[in-house]
Amino acid sequence: MAQTAQSAGTHTVTPGDPRPPADSDAAQGLDIKARTQSQLILRRFLRHKGAVAGMLLLGFVVVLSISSIGLGPIPGWWDKNYVNSADLVNRGRPTLSVVPEFLGGGGMHLGEHPFGQDNIGRDYFALTMRGTQISLLIAFITGVVATVTGTLIGAAAGFFRGRLESVLMRITDVMITIPTILFAAMVAVMWGNKGVAVLGLVLGLVTWTQVARLVRGEVLSIREKEFIEAARSVGTSAARIIVKHILPNVIGIIIVSVTLAISAAVLLESALSFLGMGVQPPDTSLGRIINEYRTAMVTRPWLFYWPGIFIIAIALSVNFIGDGLRDAFDPRQNRVRD
Amino acid sequence: MLVFIVRRLIVSVFVFFSATALVYVMAANLGDPLADLRELPANRRENAIAERTERMHLDKPVIVRYFLWLAGAFRWDLGTDRDGIQINATLEDALGATLQLVLGATILAIVLGVALGVISALRQYSSLDLTVTFSAFVFFSLPLFWVGSLLKEFAAIEFNNWLADPTIAWWVIALIALLIGGFFASLLVTDRRTRLIAFGGTTAATAVALAVMSATGWFANPGLGIGVIALTALAAALGFSVLFSALEWNPVMKSAVITAVIGILSSVAFRGVLENPYPIVVIGLLVLALAIAAGVGWFVGGELFRRPAITASLCTAVATAMVIFMDRLLWSFAAYSDSVNGRPIATIGPSTPNYDGTYWEHNLDSLTHLALPTMALVLVSLASYSRYSRATMLEVMNQDYVRTARAKGLPERAVILRHAFRNGLIPITTLVAYDIATVFGGAVVTETVFGWRAMGSLLLGGIQERDPNPIMAFFLISGGAVVVFNMIADIAYAYLDPRIRLS
Prior knowledge:
The complex is a heterodimer. Chain A is 63% helix and 0% strand. Chain A is built from 13 helices and no strands. Chain A has helices at 2-8, 26-29, 37-47, 49-69, 124-160, 162-177, 180-191, 196-206, 209-222, 226-233, 238-274, 286-292, 302-329. Chain B has 2 domains: 2-90 and 450-496, no CATH class; 94-123 and 143-159 and 222-439, no CATH class.
């Protein structure tokens, strides 16, 4: 009797639990809490060290790039901008120093030009921050547009089957046939001069195919499950089945797709801009900066390193976040072997 | 199965035609292909514009131009670019260089990536696994053009400078030795003591080898010699017979060792033939080696061990042939290095223009030009393979049939190779098909960084000049490769995984 009374208040003990709780169990003395699905996911996500580190790194990059040179008309804390040139100090070498003096370094300080100056004396920190802002903006727009388009098309194809499915999937096949770099370069040449937001949008419209295939596969497997059949048998409408029963089950894969799409977009945009086909002047982006100064690699290597480091930081942190989200939503992938 | 293949083929052809139409219409609407001519002085402008309009059929609607191009493409006549140069000729030059790059990089990335992924899955949550997983994340996030430029600076220019006086500092030797020792030690699953011995042994051996190489100037004048060839061949024989059979003196190991000995002896016997051979002779020798290996496996293996014996012998023969080939290449390295002014690792183009040398020097020339672009492409695409194969391998190792295989007492080697690895490989076929498009895209960027005039410059030139024909030539090859690989992957998938219904 005592056992029943004790386990009645807990929710984690399932009927299939092989070990019935005994009085001597330490767990009996502990406070067993009921957790919702989203709380479980959040906990799993926060336990993923790489994902948390990625969140911190991405947050740092975003805050640094926006707060330093400001956003649009709002000024930031950094006193130089990316347009004006000044006299070259020490051939424009970076003045940033992170090694403290007691370790034989130059002390920890930013200096006049922490990332150095380019060949005409522009402050390279401000320029890199400007490029980071634009690259982040494009990557975010591209990632979201690609995911939304891909989800809509994949979900429609997976749920409705029949003619609609074959038409949508053939369209996807046609788009997969065209290498991303070719497709993206062409839309970037056609619409890239209309501003970075438009560039992000059109890049999203050519990179949704992976998401569509992923979502379709997931929806296909879910719509065969018994609970969908049950919903259908009591006369639930298609719209309600999609929103109430299918969407919550594919939301994990959609969120993971966003992160993958964003990190792919960072690299795609920078590659395009490097080839001279992405962001057009007067706007700049990290890839474009590298392209402009690629000949300076030997004489002014810092012009080459800083933008590259920021591209890697963004792509790497987003990838880690995506990995953490995948583990959080689908813990089966992460189980330990016995 | 046949119905499935035919239906798949028809769909693919249909999809590909739709894609060519889409690309052509977009390429024709990129902008004004006459922009540069409008800048000309008035007296030449009219003529030049009229001539190009005629050549590019700009007076006709886009749809008509597409069908004109399509009709030409059926006869494998890809038209001319806007200045009247035949695309076919440009494409033939470009294709060879790009295919070398793309195929080499893809194969290397698959082999290395799958191997790393499988190893890290088998040692899940070990330090090796964590290192591999983390590195995969970093490689996955690298911008290709950035890596390419870095390699150009450090792996080419600095390396060539270093080759002038190839001595290694003691701390570099120590670092490399520790890394290699750590890698080998982390492969073992034993107790701490054995692992420490393995670590110490490997580290010491590597350090001594590097120190000797550094002191004798081996890097400027490299070569392997009969001793290293023999050791490698025998080690390969041992390794492959363990892989395909077991660590015991059975017919499998016997036939592999016999094959290795034949290979070692023939490396001495054929020394004169291999001085400056025709390519066909080298291929002929390889075929001969494979035939001998298969024969040895057949006769030594006997009824019971025939299949594993033949496989092990063939693999041993290939490994031995590769070591002999490497040896000959390395012997020619000093002469080659002199002939290119002591800067062997090239940063520009797919080969030295008008190079004249022996068979080995020509091979070295292509290899030194391919090395850096391939390395850049492999680094970037390696990660997706290693992560993916780690995930599938982990999933497969948790399957019930793997537990059954263990339960019925199979050795772990057979469980992993026969039951887990084979099934784990199936999903990777799909990834290969997807990846071929990415690698083509990567090749465009890599070729730009390394100054190759190949498929990449065809595409980029076409886009910059608003000229559809070069773009279509690029698409015909890259899109064609995507379609073919996707089809092969689908068919292979259906063949490898009988659970897939073909209807």
